[in-house]
Amino acid sequence: MGLMSPEEYKMSIQRMKVNAYLDGKKIENLLENPVTQSVVEATAKLYALAADPQHEKVLTADSHLTGKKINRNLHVNRSPADLEARADMALLTSQTLGTCNYRCVGCDALNALASVTYEIDRVKGTEYHSRFHAFLGKIQAKDGALSGAVTDAKGNRGKGILEGDPDMYVHMAGRKTDGIIVRGAKLHQSGAFAAHETLVLPGGALRKGEEDYAVAFVVPNSARGITYILQYNPLSVEREQAEDIFHLGNPQFGQRETCLMVFDDVFIPYENVFLCGEAEFAGVLIQRFAKTHRMNCGGACKVGFADIIIGAAQLAAEYAGTEKAPHIREAITHMVRISEASHACAIAAAVKGKEEPLGSGVYMPDDLFGNVAKISTAHGFWQIMALAGDIAGGLVVTLPSFKELKNPATKSYVEKYLKAAVPAEKRMRITKVLQNWTAGLHGPGTWHGAGSTQAQMISLHRAANIEEKKRLAKRIAGIED
Amino acid sequence: MGLMSPEEYKMSIQRMKVNAYLDGKKIENLLENPVTQSVVEATAKLYALAADPQHEKVLTADSHLTGKKINRNLHVNRSPADLEARADMALLTSQTLGTCNYRCVGCDALNALASVTYEIDRVKGTEYHSRFHAFLGKIQAKDGALSGAVTDAKGNRGKGILEGDPDMYVHMAGRKTDGIIVRGAKLHQSGAFAAHETLVLPGGALRKGEEDYAVAFVVPNSARGITYILQYNPLSVEREQAEDIFHLGNPQFGQRETCLMVFDDVFIPYENVFLCGEAEFAGVLIQRFAKTHRMNCGGACKVGFADIIIGAAQLAAEYAGTEKAPHIREAITHMVRISEASHACAIAAAVKGKEEPLGSGVYMPDDLFGNVAKISTAHGFWQIMALAGDIAGGLVVTLPSFKELKNPATKSYVEKYLKAAVPAEKRMRITKVLQNWTAGLHGPGTWHGAGSTQAQMISLHRAANIEEKKRLAKRIAGIED
Amino acid sequence: MGLMSPEEYKMSIQRMKVNAYLDGKKIENLLENPVTQSVVEATAKLYALAADPQHEKVLTADSHLTGKKINRNLHVNRSPADLEARADMALLTSQTLGTCNYRCVGCDALNALASVTYEIDRVKGTEYHSRFHAFLGKIQAKDGALSGAVTDAKGNRGKGILEGDPDMYVHMAGRKTDGIIVRGAKLHQSGAFAAHETLVLPGGALRKGEEDYAVAFVVPNSARGITYILQYNPLSVEREQAEDIFHLGNPQFGQRETCLMVFDDVFIPYENVFLCGEAEFAGVLIQRFAKTHRMNCGGACKVGFADIIIGAAQLAAEYAGTEKAPHIREAITHMVRISEASHACAIAAAVKGKEEPLGSGVYMPDDLFGNVAKISTAHGFWQIMALAGDIAGGLVVTLPSFKELKNPATKSYVEKYLKAAVPAEKRMRITKVLQNWTAGLHGPGTWHGAGSTQAQMISLHRAANIEEKKRLAKRIAGIED
Amino acid sequence: MGLMSPEEYKMSIQRMKVNAYLDGKKIENLLENPVTQSVVEATAKLYALAADPQHEKVLTADSHLTGKKINRNLHVNRSPADLEARADMALLTSQTLGTCNYRCVGCDALNALASVTYEIDRVKGTEYHSRFHAFLGKIQAKDGALSGAVTDAKGNRGKGILEGDPDMYVHMAGRKTDGIIVRGAKLHQSGAFAAHETLVLPGGALRKGEEDYAVAFVVPNSARGITYILQYNPLSVEREQAEDIFHLGNPQFGQRETCLMVFDDVFIPYENVFLCGEAEFAGVLIQRFAKTHRMNCGGACKVGFADIIIGAAQLAAEYAGTEKAPHIREAITHMVRISEASHACAIAAAVKGKEEPLGSGVYMPDDLFGNVAKISTAHGFWQIMALAGDIAGGLVVTLPSFKELKNPATKSYVEKYLKAAVPAEKRMRITKVLQNWTAGLHGPGTWHGAGSTQAQMISLHRAANIEEKKRLAKRIAGIED
Fold this sequence. Notes:
- The structure is a homotetramer.
- Helix content of chain A is 50%, strand content 14%.
- In chain A, a hairpin with a 7-residue loop joins strand 13 (354-355) and strand 14.
- Chain A contains 16 helices and 14 strands.
- In chain A, helix 8 packs antiparallel against helix 9 (326-351), helix 8 runs antiparallel to helix 13 (424-438) and helix 10 packs across helix 13.
- The longest helix of chain A is centred in the middle third of the chain and has 39 residues, at 282-320.
- By secondary structure, the first copy, chain A, is α+β, with helices and mostly antiparallel strands.
């Protein structure tokens, strides 16, 4: 076995039977349903990029277990250079797909486990790290698409974990001799149904008494007891009904497709369990996951999206003949400024990355820059959408159907009146791309990817060395305590 | 005749035959097509509000022509109090409909004509003002829904009107003894197809040589030669396919529906023509239109929308149990601050309104505050959407279909895992409302309503008395010239 | 007696002996010390403006006690029109002085007392309102300059009033048969030393047990036991040392001069006491004060300053020859936009003002718009300073001394190399004005005038009708409870 | 010779006679005048830091000419690691001094010349590069403090170089057999008078016909014909008059001191001339200078300042007892976020640095990230000042003199009423530090350091690969040309 080809990936998904629902109906074939097809196509493209000599350096790595070439999405970062390549992968896949690298969360979850299982074993004398390595070796060998699941359903946030319905957080509902039974649900799972396996982490720090919730494991996505309930929004309906995907805003790869992933007493054999009751390690596990994920999500993934938006806005201006107006040039430049400031944060987070814990060989990005990347992007992406929405013009809202271009009653009108510096169809197409970005689900999505901004503000406050800054100020002020 | 009832309005639309297309197909019945139905329902609601004693004061006025009670959408403002009531109407209809008052542009266009026809007649000895009054009396008497059309197709903006395709701007393609022939197209027409008549103004200032483009007129919306090509976007498809409108983000009244309105050699009798070649008045006409429209669009209409968004965000927080977190309270307060600052601009624009031109009896809002209202809102509405998108949580993006609530395979999961401080369905419903606002077409729409922000910046620079400010600075500096 | 003339005011201040200190030294003569002189000059100018027929309408009013013409700074607002005139006064004095109307806080304090003494009397059967009217009649008759004092020293904010040093808040340290003894200190008192009397209010809401702190009174500024310790900063030193005040950024009227005003067991006869132990009314008193003061401070006073800044920035650009650059025009327009949005809030607050409490005849501005005015300005003024600092160029920082213009060794160099579209001296002068605004104490001052922004956010949250907004959202969502 | 000690530096400045003026008077002794003393002290501290083993790695480097240890301010960057160290030096000196590293501009100017002289020689066959190396070897050997001068007086910006007074830009007023005569003036020169030599570059790109302006050279700061006219502002006066420097906002090192540096027919021997008429290279020279300088100025120097401000704001909150309020924590976190985003840009600019031109061995930072660093900081520093001004409280404006602490009449009052969680003096001291930063000249200074933001927006537009972004957008849109 080596790297999987796009075709092999599609065949494997064809064979895998998942219990998934969209708009109240069971999905019979992931490759044929127009919505799930976009996820399969995006994931297949990831396999294609890894096989493309031009992108190989970014999309593949050498396994530290075997030395063999593996997909970077299954790689444990062993150096700052690895972290840089990890961010570069996020940038490249966003630029190429205009949607999720659906293997991204799995990759960051895997790195968190590599680091924390090492630490648990040293503190508690457990054997999670070798168990994890056994799993890692297998999935690297078969080049499996690995999804990651973090966010619990949570229910009423005003209540603690132990106060409400016990199922609001994924937990062990039973322990057996050969494995555990897990129950609960994970929200906002990007594309899990079209990956082979999912790595599940606890969604937050845990306290004494919450040991049953301290559970991390990997599970095949077709496992008995797992149900996927897919998101459904205007863009889903539009795609379902489209006669020609080129009438859509991101024709091939679609919007980010997520699901509610329900675990209804799913059995997990111990060899696939990497945390099992050690509540005191849940916090550090999610924190290490967040470190890498915030760097990638804020400082690379959304930067790739911004590149598409900036390019499309510039084209829209050129197509309308307004590209030389000073305020258009300024708007474009501000979009670059905002986006590249986040990009810089990812680069800084990577190059300042450190081995954590010492001796593990696992490298984590700098937490301060990672959090700044994500917060800057959460605010900045709205500004970029706003600027693009301004440049794009009212047509982003009022665009007629592409079918009018074939309607004898309206074709000549649309061709005539939507023509500008280029023919109407070209203008409509770039406008549709911008509609997807400025009038779609990306704004709220950017707030919530990699966790809420408020969570990052708290992390940032912790990561910032405020005491050192106080020392500098006192020295300047001549204050001695 | 008196005020029309909602039922009478619907019947009249039923009778009116318009040549309209949606997604490449002709619309057979405006009341039955799910998309156009939302426009009819919104407009019918406007008639209902005028008949509602609670809102009568805002929605009706006394005609200065007849003294009879008329719908305020057909009223010419005669005082600052009228201007305040005009803005109050925009606020109320937005709060109620969550979409366009489709009679709004017509109302502001009508005020611009009342002012400018008076002025042209005084300068040129024409008789447009009485002609306009004749029309006004008739439409007030029958309480017709009047749409307004301003934005031309324009084509390549790098070229002047006379340089490219002559049809890119609506113009007189011929003059006959009893009327004129008009040709061209207006973009972004909000709901014209469900109004009775449309008032058409030139889209910008004109120069000598461009006399054929200096044309303003009213036309029945079913006139021969007019074709409506409707916008078509993900929300259109979602509405078309919805089994239950309560699965939509704005169930009854929908999103703002617009169209490309094509004039293919439409005949307009002279009695309906209010500008006919006086190129030097096109600029002032559009400027007067913009004055009132920017006040309403920026300082009242979007404020009403913001009220819905703020209420929905607060509910979403309460439903999730997060409403007491300081950052949530702060976000809500900022949303209020941003929205009410724009609201204050509309109030200031109205109370500082002046008769223009003197002797006309027509009152126009203050131009400085009107422009500030619109620019503040253009930027601020994105901030409000962003804050709402933050409060709303990831569910705004990842919400599953309402049909899952009836799907035996998923119903119990969705009910269980989306429940928080309230049952799942309630939470899903308010999330859907927020999806409509934070992940829909409102952001770009807000930039472009009432013209581009750049146009308003230019108006604002002109309206600001910079010379007086220089005088103040010189006095402080002790500079004497 | 009628309105005081500027000369009479100066003579009265000459006669008044206050115990004031600057830079560790006692001030012997307020009219001769360069720092306090600027306050006297600014206040004298207020008297001059009231006597100027051009400004009379704004600066004077008819007393509701006597019907006689009085200075508006001593007027109780009796209508929305009065509130508008009050804000207009703040605008005009800021435009004229470029510093504090030092009678402003006294005016707003006086309005709060007019309203609240009426209310206390009705609830408690006291006689504060008539006592207050007696005082009001006297000070109106002599046209006294009345200062207002609100902010207590407070000390450690982590502790409650009763937990720390009892003197951290002004309070009754003793009650006698004919009056009370007050002790404590008020911070940030703008120009009290150059006014005749000061109206003192409690600095915040009070609880049961804090009755001694519930004290409001008026006191002559030369009363025994009062000490003024003046602020001292780089601009103070610059003014002290200036050979020619025209080498300063605001030559005649200076920066806002404040002081720490210490009450060291000051005796106040009962006729001058307007709150004496009614702790439950302290909160409403400060809230009513804040209502008017935030409207004026945020929506008028700083708008007048902004007018000077905008004018100076425009002149700096013209003097440097850069005024036609698009980004300069845009920056100027944004400054106008920001400033006028706050201005609109003051207008809206005034016209939406209401009698409070009903029957009192006292009008208070709308609280929502007043708070929005102040918060918008607190943020916006920094943006205006920033934009002005950008337009002004590096010279704002690197400006040499005006004395170089007379130094034979450097005169020709400065004249030559600082010349641009105008001679060097003119350019230096406008640069000095901009230095005063963009590199002085105005930024922090704007945050803290009329209380902290956080206090206003809380007021705004309370003033916003969130429940009504929730109702609107539920109606749109089709949610029924 | 090796590294100079702080004492040797001071003695050398004592010996150097410069023709400098402050407030219209000649400066007799740079070490004794309180204003110039602060520059000498700051520069001496730079020498001390280089000798400090803790900071040696940052402050020194190995000369590529001799392999000997030199001060990093005289080093030519030979690798991305050098660029990182260069930025680290800017960070450290700002954190330590709270004012300029007065050798900074010289260092960046020197790097620009190293790169461009190599390029000119290859294109034109000149010998500037070896001449430059000869100079570099000498100044490295004696560890001279080298200033840099870039910004010309310019005069009326509406006119071209050749249209107005020829002296508005530094130029060759004559050429002799052994050297050239230069005339003109440089504005905004940071601390030139307390450095040993100054490297002078043209201030912008030049065209054919402007050859006389294409001149770069080094000159001893005491050269005949050079006059320094120092800036003079409120902080200068405050320092001149201070009895105790610990009553100032930055006691030891002061504010950034600049001067107008006049060249009145100064003779420069050819060995010190590194550009002499090659107008086509002026643009690239200033561009290379800007590359390094924007990275340092925006992404490191101001970050060090921000560290002091954040520390001081945190202390002010702790001293007042408000540090636990959520809005204070949030404000602190935002300050960190803003500052570190700029810091990340410097790191990214350094690690993405490249040899330029190839073969020269000289490394330049990435231009895109360098410009983003500076623009982000230009906007962000105002936000940081604003947030600090909010946290600091009104005392930043209304602080009394430190002398009141020794004034028997006021001492007890000040000690009592300004005490909070710490004694009054400590609180006053940190407030004074914050006054220096939030109410001083830093805001405008930040706009203009390293050139105007508009210049950086233009550079950024050029540095951004917009064509590549268009390609990405077209691919997503399915547009083929």
